[in-house]
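chain below, 241 aa
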Amino acid sequence: MDLTGPLTTPAPNTAVVATWKITAPSPAVTATASIPATGRLIVEADMVVAGPLPTPSESRVVDATAAPAAVAAGAALVPPPMLVTVTPTATGAVTLQPGGFTLYLNSGTGTGTGTNSDVEMLDCTLATPAEASAAALVLNVQSPGTGTSPTTTPSTTPPVTPSTTPPVTVPSPTITVTETETSQPPKTGQVERTPAGAASTGGGGDAGPDARLFMMSGALLVAFAGIGGLALRRRTAANRG
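prediction:
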C-alpha cells in the first residue's frame, strides 16, 4: 500500500487529494482465465481519516474502477489507484490510515449470478494495527504563505542539535622580563689611594717655613734663659760662701 499526498502544502478550507496505490503482491495475483476486453478490475478499501476536518475522525470506504481491458490467462492483475479527498477546516495534521481491501473482477459478459456481476479475486486484511500506522500518510495543513514545501510523512530522524561546548580559546603567551638592580656605593669624587709611610701627626713642615722659624727662636730663648738662671744661682752661692 502506497499513499502519497499533493505536491504543494495544503491549506485550510481547500480540497486535498491523496492517492492510494496497491502494488502487486509477491507472488502476484494472476488471472486464472482470460478476461475479455469488456472486463475491468474494481478495488474497494477501508480507511480511517482524522484531523481538523468536519468530522474529526471517521472510517471511510473508498473504491476505484479500472478502464475495460482484456487480460490474458496467467497475467498479473494490477488494481487501479484510489483517490481520497479531504477538506481540512483548520491548520494541523490530517492523518490517512489505510486498512484492508478487496479486489473484484467485473467481466462484463453477463455470465454469473447476475448481470455484470462482480467476482471476488483477492481479500487482504492487515495483521496488526502497527502495519496500518506504518503505512499512514500525514498531511501538514498550513495557512497560505507559511510554506510551499511538498507534504510528506514526518521523518523519524531526530534533528541535529548544535554543540553547547564553548569554543576553546588559546591564550597568547605573555613574556615577562624581570630586571634585578644591584645597589652600588655612591661616588664621592675622591680617589681611593693609600698613602705611603706613617700617618701624619700634624707637626713638622705642615706649618710652613715662617712658623718653623718662630718655633726655633722660641726654643733658643728658653735655652738661654735656662743657662742664665743657672749662672745667677752659682754667683749667689759663691758670694755667700
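The longest strand covers residues 92-106. The chain has two domains: 2-141, 209-240.
thats it, cya
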